[in-house]
Design goal:
There is one protein chain. The chain has 563 residues and is mainly alpha-helical. Among the domains are: 8-257, Serine Threonine Protein Phosphatase 5, Tetratricopeptide repeat, CATH 1.25.40.390; 297-393, no CATH class. Helix content is 44%, strand content 6%. It is built from 24 helices and ten strands. The chain has helices at 8-14, 25-29, 42-62, 64-68, 79-83, 92-111, 114-134, 151-154, 161-181, 199-216, 222-235, 263-266, 269-273, 278-286, 292-295, 332-340, 351-354, 413-425, 433-447, 454-458, 469-479, 484-494, 518-523, 525-533; strands at 72-74, 138-139, 158-159, 246-249, 274-276, 302-305, 318-319, 322-323, 345-349, 407-411. The strands form four sheets. The protein has a four-stranded mixed beta sheet. Strands 1-5 form a two-stranded antiparallel sheet. Strands 2-3 form a two-stranded antiparallel ribbon. α7 (114-134) runs antiparallel to α9 (161-181) and α10 packs antiparallel against α11. The radius of gyration is 25 Å and the shape is globular. 49% of the residues are buried. Residues 1-34 have low confidence and may be disordered. It comes from Algoriphagus aestuariicola. Keywords: Lipoprotein. It holds the Pfam family SusD-like_2.
Length: 563
């Protein structure tokens, strides 16, 4: 798992099977430089799907969807991140992986490897689950069967979300059964980058994904969700410890196999733009959350209230209390070196003369959806040339290309525990809501290396269990740091946490989906039109048309959620 890019030759061979929607196996088979599908080794097909799925999950959950759920805000290139200013969004990256995965399933059937087929069914469920969670209705039943001679398959119908979720659940149930009853002896461990052929861990993964999707449909199809969740709970076969988390680490050898904000590959530009959102940072500071020091860095230069000051604020920074004439800010690298050497940088201000308060805390975030976020907290260097010395950056670990903490997380024990806590509050027979809630927090703290702080943290007002779904979903939202898609999907079906948009948002409510992309609009327009017609439109996004980010898909229609 930690060496997923070791096998670059394997991945380059596998890449030939990520063929486009109009290519057939016969066409690939005539390529003298290609690999014959009839000779393909099922083990060699797995890494492309596993790596791609993990990267898609992380790239969404650490980037713009982290802005949606207000884990982070950006102070440069911020409109999509902070204020949901989105255009059409293509899903080709998902369907390319799904085509390779479909070949894995078919090839597994041809060679009689039930275990590989179960892996394919699990990854199919994960990827189609993401597609429908993000967009809504989508090609499913007739997808992945493209042929140049069959237009029904080239331009497949869009299935409803209900059909897709039910299909995802049935495939996961089949996969979990296979994992529990078939041998993994023909799995070459280094090609299984998640579990190295460990059948028990694959079964836990499939069952935990089932918990995710049962909870997703719990308000729409409770007759399916309730017995499903209870059955998996009674089996005891799901993620129960942070060491069970389904993750992919990064090698850090190139930009493509490194953490997305690795400063060594983009000169720190992406890292520098990401800042903690006050929506997340404020409650974490209020409860002395031990994850703060891992996820975020103290401000380089801290404001100090000083009513003896005869001007509104210091024109220059102070180093260990001494004004540095002519210096309004230092560069990031210089700040890091100076602070590491024990120096303290401040600026003083007089609120009586300035006319308003500044944020004087050691950790400072960005409010949501600011019109000019780079100027927040009286930054003397707005724009993108220097970082904002008066707002915290995300933690230094996120500058790195690889680290033990830098993992794409497909599903976690924390998430599973919070699902069971919510289920218990709903009245499902799954044990104690408090036990599951506390296990979720404990697992998250362990994941981030701060488990020693559990006893103090769980006793904090606001963290100590109060029996409400709001508290469970708030802590789950926090624990989904870098996995923000799950926090967004929870918000859509529950309205929790109660996010508020900022002044730069084009609408006064949060978005609930990605608009269908240009490829589909151009080449499968009739099906897109039908699918869009099944969305529930509102007064939001009217000028865009019904294919907008505020039109409600089936999963939240009729629920009055999230707004």
């Amino acid at each position: 798992m930690k060496n997923w890019i070791k096998h670059t030759k394997v991945l380059s061979l596998v890449a030939v099977f990520a063929f486009g929607s109009c290519e057939s196996l016969d066409e690939v088979n005539t390529n003298p430089n290609g690999v014959s599908p009839s000779d393909a080794n099922v083990n060699m097909l797995m890494p492309t799907v596993m790596v791609g799925a993990a990267k898609n999950m992380l790239n969404l959950g650490y980037q713009d969807v982290a802005g949606v759920v207000q884990h982070t805000q950006k102070d440069g290139w911020f409109s999509g991140h902070n204020s949901y200013d989105w255009g059409p969004s293509d899903w080709s990256g998902y369907y390319a992986l799904l085509r390779t995965n479909e070949f894995l399933i078919k090839r597994s059937e041809e060679v009689g490897s039930e275990f590989h087929k179960a892996i394919g069914l699990t990854m199919k469920s994960f990827l189609f689950g993401m597609v429908t969670d993000l967009w809504g209705d989508a090609p499913y039943t007739y997808a992945l069967q493209g042929s140049k001679d069959d237009l029904d398959y080239q331009f497949p119908v869009y299935d409803s979300q209900e059909i897709i979720y039910k299909g995802v659940i049935e495939d996961l149930k089949t996969a979990a059964t296979i994992f529990g009853s078939s041998s993994s002896s023909n799995v070459i461990p280094q090609y299984d980058i998640y579990f190295a052929g460990n059948a028990t861990r694959w079964q836990k993964f499939a069952n935990s994904l089932l918990l995710r999707y049962y909870m997703r449909i719990s308000d729409k199809l409770p007759e399916i969700a309730k017995p499903g969740i209870e059955a998996i709970y009674n089996s005891g076969n799901y993620l129960t410890d942070a060491s069970d988390d389904v993750v992919m680490a990064y090698l850090g050898a190139s930009a493509d196999d490194s953490w997305p904000s690795a400063a060594s590959y983009d000169a720190g530009s992406n890292f520098r733009r990401l800042k903690p959102a006050n929506t997340l940072l404020d409650p974490m500071l209020e409860t002395n959350d031990p994850r703060v020091t891992v996820w975020f860095r103290p401000v380089h230069c801290q404001w100090v209230e000083d009513k003896s000051l005869t001007v509104a604020y210091d024109p220059y920074i102070r180093k260990n209390g001494v004004i540095q004439d002519g210096i309004v800010s230092l560069g990031d690298e210089q700040y890091l070196q100076e602070i590491a050497a024990g120096n303290k940088f401040t600026r003083h201000y007089n609120p009586d003369l300035l006319g308003y308060e500044l944020d004087t805390r050691e950790y400072v975030g960005l409010p949501t959806g600011l019109i000019n976020p780079s100027a927040h907290n009286l930054n003397p260097t707005p724009g993108q040339q220097l970082e904002n010395q008066h707002v915290s950056q995300i933690g230094d670990v996120y500058r790195l290309a690889k680290h033990d903490l830098l993992k794409a997380r497909l599903i976690s024990t924390a998430e599973v525990s919070f699902i069971l806590a919510e289920a218990a509050i709903k009245g499902y027979a799954v044990g104690s809501a408090q036990t599951h809630y506390e296990n979720g927090i404990k697992a998250s703290l362990k994941t981030w290396g701060v488990s020693d702080g559990f006893d103090d943290f769980i006793a904090q007002p606001g963290v100590a269990f109060d029996g409400t779904a709001e508290q469970v979903l708030t802590q789950k939202w926090i624990a989904n740091w870098t996995s923000a898609t799950e926090a967004w999907f929870d918000y859509k079906r529950t309205g929790l946490p109660d996010f508020q948009v900022g002044p730069a948002s084009r609408e006064p409510v949060m978005p609930v989906r990605f608009p269908y992309g240009n490829n589909e609009l151009n080449f499968n327009a009739e099906e897109v039109e039908t699918a869009v017609g099944r969305l529930e439109t509102s007064q939001y996004g009217v000028e865009i048309g019904p294919n907008n980010q505020w039109s409600k898909p089936w999963i939240i229609q009729g629920t009055n959620k999230p707004w």
